[in-house]
Design a protein that fits this description.
Layout: E1 3-5, E2 19-26, H1 34-48, E3 53-57, E4 67-70, H2 75-80, E5 86-93, H3 97-105, E6 113-118, H4 123-126, H5 135-146, E7 150-153, H6 156-165, E8 170-173, H7 189-195, E9 199-205, H8 220-230, E10 237-243, H9 250-265, E11 272-276, E12 288-292, H10 301-309, E13 313-316, E14 326-328, H11 333-344, H12 354-383
Length: 385
């Protein structure tokens, strides 16, 4: 078996209603996905800026102090729960189509301003309902979007497509990355010992998910294929796979089992580690290379996180990547291996230097400031409506 590590499940009861400047619908840790980490960092910044903020968690936990209720991914909750809270602004981070439609239906008679963020890099793969060939689906989607006063996209190409579908609504392009406010921290002794044993290829996935064509979304299979190719050449090479949500469905579990069997067949099972439900940031250390072989992508917060940490990043070219990322053609494992060899040998200099970090920092700061400005603009409109 591959060594695994997990964290205890956190549960608590719903908290009392209150009035807010901003009510955010989105995920918070656990699990430690890109959007949930984004929100866990954003809320303290908003509170520091003077906003009173509450969060309706996509999942069940209400343990964090700013989470006022859970939605449990139930579309009915997206319709009825937001109406229980007095707020001037509602900000929904898109999860599923039924959630979007339910929230739009529940907006009736609300005087609050509504904002939507689409964390998508490919309309067809992430938000295909907008351009669906089924007229009913596409019409309902456009109607639901029309209920929002502002739509935020993390990708300029997606923003352009959204503008084509909307009639004069405000569409903004803002990346979602925010810098970690503190030290990265450490893991338990087992994980720390593994990371101290060699050069580590770090791969991250929110879960084990599949595209409509049957391919696994995050490219864990491509990462394992590349590792089994490179491991015999490099005795010190290790592979660490971080999965934010432990898979519960049989198809996903079987996929991981097949990957494990491949590692066992190659005789390198002791050089691989799968970590469930742990934050990624402490893994982004000096002896690591971050590998992102995804087959669909939005604004990959993990890529920006790795760049912030100053480590090399190797990613598929499925979307435009930030400057300094070494890319390979999507699903081309041979090119992935060649790129990793060049990075490990120092023949490709990824821009994980001071200049690159400063450039990333400027982007982070502008995003945070611009989002706060956007909130203030929307709140000013709500006061005069």
């Amino acid at each position: 078996m591959i060594a695994r590590s997990t964290a205890p499940e956190i549960r608590s009861e719903e908290k009392s209603d209150d009035a807010f400047d901003i009510l955010i619908l989105g995920p918070v840790p656990p699990p430690f996905g890109g959007i949930s980490v984004h929100l866990s960092r954003l809320i303290p910044e908003l509170e520091h800026a003077g906003f009173k903020v509450g969060v309706l968690n996509h999942f069940r936990s209400t343990a964090l102090p700013f989470v006022v209720a859970s939605l449990s991914k139930n579309p009915l909750n997206y319709y009825r729960v937001p109406k229980r809270f007095r707020t001037r602004l509602v900000h929904y981070h898109h999860s599923r189509w039924f959630h979007l439609v339910a929230l739009a239906l529940g907006k009736r008679k609300s005087r609050a301003r509504y904002i939507l963020t689409l964390h998508a890099g490919d309309i067809q793969k992430h938000f295909g309902e907008l351009v669906s060939t089924a007229p009913f689906v596409s019409r309902i989607t456009r109607w639901a979007l029309s209920r929002f006063d502002t739509v935020i996209c993390v990708d300029a190409r997606v923003a352009s497509l959204v503008r084509e579908q909307l009639d004069g609504q405000r569409v903004e392009v803002l990346p979602a990355f925010l810098e970690s406010p503190g030290q990265a921290g450490e893991y338990d002794a087992t994980i720390e010992s593994f990371f101290n044993s060699g050069r580590v290829l770090v791969v991250a996935a929110y879960g084990v998910q599949f595209l409509e064509d049957g391919r696994e979304l995050y490219g864990l299979d491509a990462a394992v294929h590349a590792f089994t190719t490179l491991a015999p050449e490099r005795e010190d090479l290790r592979l660490a796979i971080f999965i934010a949500r432990r898979p519960s469905r049989r198809r996903a579990r079987r996929h991981l089992e097949r990957l494990e069997q491949r590692l066992e067949g190659a005789g390198i099972r002791d050089r691989a580690l799968v970590v469930f439900e742990r934050p990624l940031v402490p893994a982004l250390r000096a002896n690591a290379v971050f590998v992102r072989p995804t087959r669909a992508e939005g604004d990959a917060l993990s890529v920006r996180e790795a760049q912030r940490a100053g480590i090399p990043v190797v990613a598929s070219d499925v979307v435009p990547r930030p400057r300094g990322v070494a890319t390979f053609r999507e699903d081309d494992v041979a090119e992935l291996c060649a790129t990793l060899r060049a990075v490990l040998d120092g023949r490709i200099q990824t821009r994980s230097n001071v200049a690159s970090v400063e450039a990333t920092s400027a982007t982070d700061e502008n995003f945070s400031r611009r989002l706060i400005e956007l909130y203030r603009e929307e709140l000013a409109i709500s006061r005069h409506s």
